[in-house]
Write a structure and sequence with these properties.
alpha/beta, 13 strands, elongated, disordered N terminus, single chain, 467 residues
Length: 467
């Protein structure tokens, strides 16, 4: 695993001093890359495991600080370090000349070779890299594997995917004919996917090393990390970490006993974040709906800008803006869950504002005129006459918005919010089964939305009685 589109990463002061003052070492990784880093269940509790995890535990212990692991998608790690969300990246990253211009790397602590995975039935088709001409080959985007494939397999048709399990699944399902992957990770996947094998081909530049990435200009921090790495190498700990990781990856417990809690916790988090998003989104939406209906041009303009901007930009972009912006612009170190929830609230608010506005507009204008002719004020007319009728128009659409939020909440997984989709991806990486976790997640989403749909149908039928 390895490359990221790097920007300038500089520490205002040596990161070592920041960590020491805080007493906590925040390490970013993507726990879908076993045996380097993955999650497992021990006595019903989730824990991180792998070569990188054991190494950073040693680094934290050597510096007498607490360790905080921040798990998120690999291509989000650099932005997290740049904005101060994490202190360093330990995620099987390979140093390159380009990256070394932007971040500092520790001494190398692990070496891997790059291999090509194919289906066993295609074993005789691919004997050299030239055989991959016009052949679809999958790689993880922004990684060393992608760079290597572009360099040494220029005639292949590359498909860049976000995560390693997706790369493997593309070969398993026949979407692509091959995949470029680290040998140590590939070997683990081959043990769980008997239809796959390594192709008998070799890259000219196949050997890669891994190191820890830290912000620029933090020599004390880098020196402390290098001392821990040297001590681990001198004592033969890296080899022990590797043996331990392989043992922890392949225990004999059943799939559900090992990963059932991941899905249960994910469902709970999905429900919680969706409920919070809709409730607070409704409050914000109500405010902006009335602002847009007001006679003030300034208030209308404020509401219009907010609603149009949110509705005109993808939720994924909004999640990243909130996650990185709260730290970079506002200086607030908010958790991934809070940032993801806030992004959903802001997103819901814009859509619900239009739902409420449309519901109010759907009430016949004569209702307001009749209420005012009876001596009611505008506020009283809205409260006693208009809103009771508008609610009947609003509720069905609000229920649909709730269903939409449950599904769209999966997007916050990119910043490490441990909801259903994020946990399914974690299980993909830990189990080396890229399909089953997705199937379970799909069923869970369907059950949630189906139950909510039935509840909303009952409410609508009861409200229609008065018609």
């Amino acid at each position: 695993m390895a490359s990221l589109p790097l920007s300038l990463v500089q520490a205002k002061e040596d990161q070592f001093d920041i960590v020491k003052k805080r007493g906590v070492l925040k390490v970013g990784l993507s726990a879908d890359f076993a045996p380097m880093e993955f999650e497992r269940t021990v006595n019903g509790k989730r824990e991180y495991a792998g070569i990188d995890v054991d190494l950073i535990k040693k680094i934290a212990k050597d510096q007498n600080v607490k360790l905080q692991i921040v798990n998120m998608s690999f291509d989000s790690l650099l932005g997290a370090m740049k904005t101060g969300k994490i202190d360093m990246i330990a995620s099987g990253m390979t140093p390159t000349a380009e990256r070394e211009k932007e971040v500092d790397f520790s001494n190398n602590y692990f070496s891997v070779t790059q291999k090509v995975i194919i289906q066993k039935k295609d074993k005789n088709k691919f004997k050299s890299l030239k055989d991959f001409k016009d052949v679809p080959v999958s790689v993880q985007k922004q990684t060393t594997q992608e760079e290597l494939a572009q360099k040494e397999m220029p005639d292949a048709t590359l498909t860049s995917l976000t995560r390693t399990p997706e790369v493997i699944m593309s070969v398993n399902t026949g979407k692509t004919k091959a995949a470029v992957i680290d040998s140590i990770v590939g070997e683990a996947y081959l043990t769980q996917n008997p239809s796959l094998t390594f192709a008998d081909v070799e890259f000219n530049d196949s050997k890669k090393t891994t190191a820890i990435a830290v912000p620029k200009d933090s020599p004390k921090f880098l020196d402390a990390i290098n001392q821990s790495i040297k001590d681990a190498q001198d004592k033969g700990l890296i080899k022990e970490y590797e043996k331990k990781a392989h043992k922890e990856m392949f225990d004999d417990a059943s799939f559900l006993s090992k990963y059932g809690t991941f899905f249960i916790q994910g469902i709970g988090a999905t429900i919680l974040i969706s409920i919070i998003g809709v409730i607070f989104g409704s409050l914000i939406g109500g405010i902006f709906a009335f602002l847009k209906l007001s006679s003030s041009k300034i208030l209308k303009a404020i509401a219009w800008v907010y609603i149009e901007f949110i509705r005109g930009t993808p939720l994924l972009v909004q999640v990243f803006l909130v996650y990185f912006g709260t730290t970079a612009v506002l200086g607030l170190d908010l958790s991934a869950f809070v940032c993801g929830t806030l992004a959903l609230i802001l997103n819901c608010g814009a859509y619900i504002a239009e739902i409420i506005r449309a519901g109010i507009k759907a009430v016949d204008k004569g209702q307001m005129e009749a209420a005012r002719s009876l001596g009611l004020t505008h506020a009283q007319s809205m409260n006693k006459v208009i809103m009771p009728q508008a609610i009947k128009n609003i509720l069905p659409a609000l229920g649909n918005e709730f269903i939409t939020v449950i599904k769209e909440s999966s997007i916050v997984s990119v910043i490490g919010v441990s909801e259903l989709m994020f946990n399914a991806q974690v299980v993909q990486g830990a189990s080396f089964d890229p399909f089953t976790p997705l199937l379970i997640a799909a069923i869970a989403y369907f059950v949630l939305t189906f139950i909510l749909s039935r509840v909303m149908n009952v409410i609508e039928r009861r409200m229609s009685v008065s018609d």
